[in-house]
What we know:
The protein has helices at 21-24, 49-70, 96-102, 108-116, 123-131, 140-144, 148-173, 204-210, 226-233, 251-260, 282-300, and strands spanning 3-12, 32-34, 40-44, 76-83, 178-183, 216-221, 242-245, 267-269, 306-311, 317-322, 325-331, 349-357, 360-366, 368-376, 379-393, 396-402, 414-416, 422-430. By secondary structure, it is of the alpha/beta class. The protein has two domains: 3-245, Glycosidases (TIM Barrel, Alpha-Beta Barrel); 306-430, Chondroitinase Ac, Chain A, domain 3. Strands 9, 10, 11, 12, 13, 14, 15, 16, 17 and 18 form a ten-stranded antiparallel sheet that branches. A six-stranded parallel sheet has the order 1-4-5-6-7-8, with helices on one face. Strand 7, helix 10 (251-260) and strand 8 form a beta-alpha-beta unit. The model has no long low-confidence stretch (mean pLDDT 96).
Amino acid sequence: MKLVLLWFGSWKNSMSCYVPAWVKTDTKRFPRVQTKAGKAVEILTPFGTNSLNADVKAFSALMRHIREVDERQQTVIMVQVENEIGMLPEARDHSALANAAFEQPVPKSLIQHLQTHKASLAPAMRTTWQANGTKTSGNWETVFGKSLATDELFIAWYLAQYTDKVTQAGKAIYPIPMFVNAALNRPNVKPGDYPSGGPLPHIIDIWKAGAPTLDFLSPDFYNPDFKYWNDLYTRPDNPLFIPEIRFEPSDAAKVFYAIGHYQGMGFSPFSIESTDKPADDPIAKSYNVLAQLSSTILEHQGKGVMNGVLFDRKATSDTVRLGGYTFICKHDYTLGWSPKAKDEEWPMTGGLIIQTGPDEFTIAGSGIVITCFSDRPQTPNAGILQLDEGTYVDGNWKPGRRMNGDQDHQGRHIRIPVGECGIQKLTLYRF
Length: 431
């Protein structure tokens, strides 16, 4: 067993609900966030030195304990530092400490980061900066203008700085990977109505500059826009890891897409233990297949020889190109054979394709059908030379049925039907 620990130090889902009683009851030593009207919120301000020192001390003790009892076995492989950080119910803290910092010059390290990465900044970050003249000195409103966007940039910087100091202290004791997760915002919702200032895609550059000790930033999924958010989080400087996603049947397909298309590091449905029959749950079947393929995935990850697909009633097809072949991938119901193909809603399906040799591929997933074409003009056709379903047992491939008749529609396609989850090994030839 391997563990990723979640550290609920100063913040959990924005609030400071996990801090001990001696912190909660001493707001003089451990000051709170305040609204514009001066109302205190149960959120520790990132400008509180005593709060930071207490968090650092406690986190350091945890990391020291993990190192002492687990460094040899390495059960704990990563730590999430804080949880879904952000400001509520306003875009930023308006306490006296925060207001004083807001009037100070924008830190030079942030300006230098923006200048150095100007061409690759997130669009919202670039727009906010450019709209006010791309200034390189002055306080926050001088540089970025007077807006809620500026308020969010400001608080994001100081949340990131605070988290980075906690992370630095922990890594100084036991340097395993550490990350922070984000509660995703929704379209047309203003900062403060969602946890403002967290490690969100539109302000990811602030977090990259303000918390360089963190290894990556991660999305928590409780909305349907799976591809959209993953596209934003998957960057050359940020691998995809999904520490939370709503536990629902579609996870069984999404996990193949996350790992195949985005080369994702991990996929963790929230409250995955909340099921009466774990072995029958769709995600258990996907995990079983992925566990069998783990060594193959790790061997080929990040080399441009693996991709994934994800389908529903609205998005029924996708194209994957690997190894000089084009794979036209579709939802199983596009074949029209199932009576449920006429339903208004289709179950989400998905899979992954791994090129393991010049003409050899491993395909896994559920509810997918794939046809193949050669990318060579002189031999434009691709035929199925051999197709076997099977399983990996102790890392060794154990072939089952040869899929050479009705199973591949007389050589026309590769298919894993809805309701089944499996692995097929494919060898193609050109003619």
